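Try this one yourself first.
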């Protein structure tokens, strides 16, 4: 069994309808009924919760950054009720104001296990806290199954995990014969000159990108223009935690930097990573779309028959049970490429 499978245990207890879920710490949390008042501490969790539960107004509190992503994404059309979620109980760095949180009377709080102090604070106050794994794609799959167990929808959780795996496999199977030297050199700017080292391996490796920063230490690294010239990437992606847009590089708007000599800029291969129901670059439910989108940019010939508009539409129907309009699909794929 995978780590994701072994971490989810749903047991019917003595009380009629009560059940127990084991979180990533191995803690067993017992529920008398499916939680109706849900609080999500971490940024991407509302979109994961909606993938399992569909349209619901159960989320009574979320991270302020979740709302920023919501306002920039089609999530505002899909689940407008998220706008009603309180954000004044939490900072963007996931620090909880316990007094404000208690006012929300949550039945469950979802948080990453790495926020130990916050967990302790909330559990001391008698709240039910379900800890999840942070950051990696495998964590997303484990989290889906744990949240699904809390929502008593284990089958839905398994279905979504399978769908993520199949979507990525569609791409990796097509790239199996591409040699290392034929892979394009790709850099993601997380913010300004802060580049991804290992942070986004989950989509870079699967989409056949060669990341010249992979030998640096840490998940992110600050680099200078001299380093960028040495790498001379074929493609530059701009992440969603940055306000930079492709035109900033393509039109050489940054003072003291000459982007025009970089291959990616010369060849107009600078792209802003899309936001669907959530940002596509961090590991998440929509990672298969990120992998497909990047693979099509990196290997236009191999993926000539893959229509990203259709891929996005189909994905949202299956995962979010939501039918996007053509305008909404265009907002996801085209609007930020200026």
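Now uncover the answer:
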């Amino acid at each position: 069994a995978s780590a994701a499978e072994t971490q989810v245990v749903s047991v019917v207890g003595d009380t009629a309808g009560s059940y127990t879920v084991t979180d990533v710490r191995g803690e067993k949390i017992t529920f008398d009924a499916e939680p109706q008042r849900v609080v999500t501490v971490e940024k991407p969790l509302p979109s994961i919760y909606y993938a399992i539960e569909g349209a619901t107004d159960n989320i009574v509190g979320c991270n302020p950054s979740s709302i920023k992503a919501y306002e920039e994404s089609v999530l505002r059309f899909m689940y407008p009720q998220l706008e009603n979620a309180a954000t004044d109980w939490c900072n963007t760095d996931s620090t909880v104001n316990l007094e404000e949180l208690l006012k929300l009377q949550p039945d469950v709080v979802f948080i990453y296990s790495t926020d130990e102090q916050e967990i302790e604070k909330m559990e001391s106050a008698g709240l039910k806290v379900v800890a999840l794994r942070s950051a990696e794609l495998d964590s997303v799959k484990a989290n889906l199954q744990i949240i699904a167990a809390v929502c008593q929808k284990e089958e839905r959780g398994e279905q979504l995990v399978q769908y993520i795996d199949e979507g990525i496999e569609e791409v990796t199977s097509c790239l199996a014969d591409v040699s290392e030297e034929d892979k394009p050199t790709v850099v993601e700017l997380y913010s300004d000159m802060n580049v991804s080292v290992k942070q986004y391996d989950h989509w870079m490796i699967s989409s056949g990108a060669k990341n010249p920063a992979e030998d640096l230490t840490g998940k992110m690294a600050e680099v200078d223009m001299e380093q960028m010239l040495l790498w001379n990437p074929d493609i530059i992606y701009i992440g969603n935690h940055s306000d930079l847009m492709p035109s900033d590089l393509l039109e050489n708007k940054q003072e003291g930097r000459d982007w025009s000599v970089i291959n990616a800029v010369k060849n107009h291969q600078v792209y802003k990573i899309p936001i669907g129901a959530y940002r596509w670059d961090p590991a998440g439910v929509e990672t298969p779309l990120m992998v497909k989108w990047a693979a099509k940019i990196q290997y236009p010939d191999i993926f000539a028959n893959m229509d990203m508009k259709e891929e996005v539409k189909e994905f949202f129907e299956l995962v979010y049970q939501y039918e996007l309009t053509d305008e909404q699909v265009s907002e996801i794929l085209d609007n930020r490429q200026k």
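Discussion: The first helix runs from residue 3 to 7. The longest strand covers residues 186-191.
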